[in-house]
Design brief:
The mean pLDDT is about 85. By secondary structure, this protein is mainly α. α1 runs antiparallel to α4 and α2 packs across α4.
C-alpha cells in the first residue's frame, strides 16, 4: 500500500482518538504508528538485503502490536494510555491495509517463519 494511504489512515484513526481524548497529539501519534512499520522494515531491508529483503518482516507482525500495546498499558502514565492505545491501533490498521493475513509466516512472526 502507498505511504500516503497509510498516513491518511493514521490521520483518520487519530481523529477518532482526538475526539475520544480531546488531545490534539492523537493525530501525529497515530500517523507515526501507521507508518513506523514501513520505515523500520524498509530500512532493515536496505541494511540486510539477503536476510530481510521483503520489507515486511519483524515490524509487520502481530507480536509487535501486542508488545506495543502491553508496553503502553504498563509503562505509560494513566492520562496518556489512550494515546498509546491509539499508536498500537494505528500499527494494527497498517497491517490490515497491507493484508498481512495473506502472509501468515510474516504476520505470525516468529511463530510460523524465520
Amino acid at each position: 500500500m502507498f505511504i500516503f494511504a497509510h498516513i491518511f489512515a493514521g490521520a483518520l484513526i487519530g481523529l477518532v482518538f482526538w475526539h475520544l481524548t480531546k488531545d490534539r497529539r492523537a493525530i501525529p501519534i497515530c500517523i507515526a504508528g501507521s507508518i513506523i512499520s514501513d520505515v523500520i522494515d524498509k530500512s532493515l531491508g536496505l541494511l540486510f538485503p539477503s536476510i530481510l529483503s521483503s520489507g515486511r518482516t519483524v515490524f509487520h507482525s502481530l507480536g509487535l502490536v501486542f508488545i506495543v500495546l502491553i508496553f503502553m498499558l504498563v509503562f505509560v502514565r494513566s492520562n496518556r494510555k489512550v494515546l498509546g492505545i491509539g499508536f498500537a491501533c494505528a500499527i494494527f490498521l497498517h497491517q490490515v491495509f497491507d493484508e498481512m493475513w495473506t502472509l501468515p509466516a510474516n504476520w505470525y512472526y516468529p511463530l510460523l517463519g524465520p
